Amino acid sequence: MTAAAVARDHLLDIFANRAAEQRPVILGGAGAGLIAKVAGSAGLDVLMTYNIAKFRMDGNASLLGYLPYGDANGITLELAPRIIPAAGGIPVIAGVGAADPYRDLGRHLDAIIAAGYAGIVNTPTAGVYDGGFRVEIEKAGIGYAREVEMVRLCQEKGIFSLVYVFDENDARAMAEAGADAVSPHLGTTGAFTNLEEALADAVDRTNRMAGAARAIAPDILVVAHGGPLETPETVQRVLSETSATAYIAGSSLERIPVQGAVAAATKSFGLLTLRRE
Predict the structure, then answer these.
(1) Would the CA dihedral through 49, 55, 61, 64 be positive or negative?
(2) What residue ranges define each of the domains in the chain, with the CATH number in brackets?
(3) How far apart are CA 19 and CA 119, in angstroms?
(4) d(CA 198, CA 125)
(5) Low-confidence ranges of the chain (pLDDT < 70)
(6) Backbone angles phi, psi at 29, to 5 degrees
(7) pTM value?
(8) What 8-state DSSP symbol labels residue 45?
(9) Which residues in the chain belong to E strands, given as ranges?
(10) Is 134 within 8 Å of 143 (Cβ atoms)?
(11) Which of 2, 4, 53, 253 has the greatest number of beta carbons closer than 10 A?
(12) Could you read off the pLDDT of 168-204 as tens digits, one per residue?
């Protein structure tokens, strides 16, 4: 078997074993080796890394990863020797920008596996764009259709593919292309006003996209992510009311906890006093 096929089988086994235990697979984003090391030692199932995670760990907004700053695919390759060894044997999925004009997609996928990654996720994705800009990038051949093409290549090469989908059409297209897992993208983590309404919408959208994908590929995996899903309680709501068997923790694992912990420690040290003479 190829290295890609071995890694894919290992990831599928993780999903199957967790399902047998009636537990979700937790996938966590890591843009720094320390996050990978701590999360892996704490029992995380799968790590993911991509340009967005690197921007996040540098103190920037996640959305910066969708703007024209930096070489997204280059950043992910550079992260390999920093994240993979620190993960301590936990499989690491790599973000791949499918529309990169300076890399042959097939050769780049081979390079991702050669670097030690276990599979791919379509990050950065054109799916976050809408309106006239989305129409134009699709017409130019550098939109979401390239990501569907990437999944077809992964299927041919035996590479595990987890993909963000944004509506039922995306879900059907990715299922037809052979994706191993679809993740209904509910928007930027924490981007909501009314929590109850946001959770009801998250359940509805996840179910609709999961249904569309499974109408094509009944065994496709469904992974929850984004929007109001930033605490164990909110994630549990979606896991309990949808067919999702996994959760991607990006900001909710590396950015939000780090911000809280560092702020709390800083304030605690700030309360220290000097000896009185």
Answers:
(1) negative
(2) 3-270 (3.20.20.70)
(3) 20
(4) 23
(5) 190
(6) -75, 145
(7) 0.94
(8) S
(9) 25-29, 46-49, 92-95, 119-121, 160-165, 181-184, 221-224, 246-249
(10) yes
(11) 53
(12) 999 999 999 999 999 999 988 867 779 999 999 999 9
